[in-house]
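Protocol step 4 of 6: structure prediction from sequence.
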Amino acid sequence: MSALRTLLVDDEAPARKRLHKLLQPFVEEERIEMVGEAADGVEALRILEVEEVDLLFLDVQMPELSGFDVLDRLPPGNRPAVVFVTAFDEYAVEAFQANAADYLLKPIEEGRIAESIARIEKRFSAGDAPTSTEDRLAELLEYLDRQSMGESVPSAKQDYIQQISIPGKDRMIIVPVSDLLSAEVQDGITRLYTLVQNPAHPPKVSRHIVSYTLEALTHRLDPEAFMRVHRSAIVQVQYIREMISWFSGRYKLVLQGGHEVIASRARSKELRARLSL
């Protein structure tokens, strides 16, 4: 069996350095080959676009794109085996254990790395790595979607908001809800993406950080206009311009202005039904 081409993804340089050191014996044994390192999810996706990667050590908690967000954006045909790396998080570990996903807890123990690599080598040797990886990741992401969205049910009797206040440096910006493309959570931070229209120019997308939680917005936005398409994203349905087939029955939604959101598998089915596709 050839060496597993391996990519390390962690936003903390000391953590990457330690993991690289722990993996060095496996490099010397020619069991793995280091492809590179990435300091965030965006860089990881960029590397995965151009490099063939068999094994991904993926930090769960990173700014901008979490480890789960990276998985959501991996295109079909480019899905390496994944070992999640995380500080102790009961919610994440429960998800990994429920779906038999490989994970390492920080601080990482040398013996646990050996177990993970041996387990993945066994899958590759059995010749079923692509199928098992796809099924494993799909089940994990669907598990996370169900757990986080299970109680988000809007009230039919509630008055839904018509505008949102966004704090600025020295003022409050009032944005009509009709201009809201999406609300998304990344690394615990809620971001609103709004449409800025100018008759003389193509529409642009503006991003704002707010203190509202996604759960609070789910209850306050009109469900006739908005839909929770993922555990970390709400979109205004009228602004969907394209639905592109994605990973394991999911869709990548292209909104007006070119902004993109990944819908979960279950919500992709609901969205298809809602749009009568």
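Step 5 (inspection) to follow. Residues 41 and 70 are 6 Å apart (CA to CA).
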